[in-house]
Amino acid sequence: MRRRTAGPLVLKFGGASLADPARVLRTVRHARARGRSVVLVVSAREHVTDLLLAATRRPHDATGHRRLVGRIARRHPGLPSTGPRSLDRLAGLLGDLERNGRPDAPTADRLLSQGERLAAHWVAATLRRAGVPAVAVEADHLGLITDNAYGASCIVLERSRGPVRRGLRRLLAAGRVPVVTGFFGRSLEGRVATLGRGGSDYAATAIAALLGAPRVELVKRHVAVLSADPREVPRTRPIPELSYEEAEELAQFGARILHPMTIEPARAHGVEIVVRSLDDPAVATTIGPGRRGRRNRAVTVLRPLRLFRLRVPGGRQRPGIVAEVSERLRRAGVNVVQLFTSSALLCLIVAPTDVASAARVLRPITDDAAAVLEGPVPVGLVTVIGDGVLDDLDRLPAAAVRGAEGFSATPRALSLAVAERRCGRTVRALHEALVGPR
Ligand code: ASP
Ligand code: MG
Q: How far apart are CA 283 and CA 285, in angstroms?
């Protein structure tokens, strides 16, 4: 008798890793041969989301749209009977765009979701041709429910649990391999809502959590999680293990390899995440409950950002000044990326797109007191991540810290705000000192 573990294995393939369907097939067969039931989650094929996004910015370019459909069709060779329907759907949506002009956020999300839909139908058909009983599943129809924050929505796990479990378990019980679209779900008001760029990882961990899967594997084409972005640092190394908390800091502090929301569903439901390289399966990062050690260090950089300095003489004597600043920014919809304070100086870091709103709501504070607002200063946030990082404070290179705009640290993450032009140097210096060579 074949042994079955508690839940299925959830395998997510990123856009670039779909370039080699034979590898996808081998991975699925391998898991099934070990008696595991498998759920696949797929991204759009590489560059497809970018192309669709470009179309939303040129809504009336009918010639460009026709070329786009051709390019996308070529990326999904041998689409089966369900496929042309999807391509028709794409052509139809582009036609709407030409007639109606710039789309609102939910309409744009509906168009962006076509990349994953095509990929799911294409992968399922490819697997079926090889004898694997795969079936494409579109996440909005399945009932993966999100909030209404189009373009950057969050999955509502409680609302999704019933429909996602029922739908996928029915297919698994029938011996099928569901191929689920990543990147989007159905909003509370019933429209298509995307999760933000790179959101298929997040969809995969959420689906794994909803199914009670013991493990989700995020298959990337080239690399797993590295100690730094190889474009910034010449000698990076793969990180074998991370705690959920470390991985979450990593994703939030700008490591482009993981969508910022990826970790939360897995942490909440104890699902182990394995980030694996398709090119080199021995290179993998396991993310799970707390682990400790120097081997899990990483340095990230988040930029471009803008820093404001708010000088409030006698700041500590004014109860609620931090709350007032935060509240004003919250009302203006400004996200504070980082906040450093001393007694009379508050340093706030925001995204460049939030600069105008932040300045507008902070300026009135300077009217009533002798407060002064300075900035925006172009900065980047360089962060060293890894449990116990504060134990190594003595190894922080003085040259990297000198001239920094601010500093903040917890036992797990240490961030320096530095002038934007110094970011590259700072990342390399911190990597050298606190992560070390391979
Ligand atoms: N296709 C989407 C993107 O390019 C989602 C993903 O790849 O995870 O952002
Ligand atoms: Mg991707």
A: 7
- Cβ–ligand 1 distance for 199 under 6 Å, the answer yes
In short, whether 43's Cβ falls inside 6 Å of ligand 1 is: yes
The rounded Å distance from CA 382 to ligand 1 centre is 25
Over residues 400-420, the pLDDT tens digits come to 888 899 999 998 999 999 999
Q: Is the CB of 195 under 6 A from ligand 1?
A: no
Output the CA 131–ligand 2 centroid distance in Å: 27
* Partners of residue 187 on adjacent β-strands: 146
Could you list which residues have their CB under 5 Å from ion ligand 2?
14-15, 43
Cα separation, 52 vs 174, in Å, equals: 35
| Cβ atoms of residues 181 and 117 within 8 Å | yes
What average pLDDT does range 25-54 have in this prediction? 95
* Span of 164-173, 306-315, 365-374, 381-390 with lowest mean pLDDT: 365-374
Q: Is the Cβ atom of 115 under 6 angstroms away from ligand 1?
A: yes
Q: Is the CB of 185 under 6 A from ligand 1?
A: no
Copy the structure tokens of residue 187: 């909003």
Give residue 342 CA to ligand 1 midpoint distance, Å: 40
Q: How far is the CA of 227 from the centre of ligand 1 (A)?
A: 22
The shares of helix, strand and coil residues in the chain, as percent rounded to the nearest 5, are 45, 25, 35
Return the number of other C-beta atoms located less than 10 Å from residue 378's C-beta: 15
Please report which ligand is nearest the Cα atom of 259.
1
Q: What is the pLDDT of residue 95?
A: 96
Query: What is this structure's pTM?
Result: 0.88
pLDDT per position as a tens digit, 114-163: 999 999 999 999 999 999 999 999 999 999 999 999 999 999 999 999 99
- Short-list 110, 126, 257, CA closest to 179: 126
Query: Is the distance from the beta carbon of residue 315 to the nearest atom of ligand 1 less than 6 Å?
Result: no
Q: At what angle do helices 48-57 and 62-74 cross, to 10 degrees?
A: 170
Residue nearest to atom 5 of ligand 1 (CA): 198
Cis peptide before 265 (omega within 30 of 0): no
7 close to ligand 1 (CB < 6 Angstrom): no
Smallest Cα–Cα separation from 382: which of 402, 399, 363, 400?
A: 400
Domains, the chain, ranges and CATH?
9-288 (3.40.1160.10), 298-434 (3.30.2130.10)
What does pLDDT average to over the chain? Answer: 91
Q: How are beta strands 284-288 and 338-341 bridged, if at all? A: unpaired
* Amino acid letter, 195: L
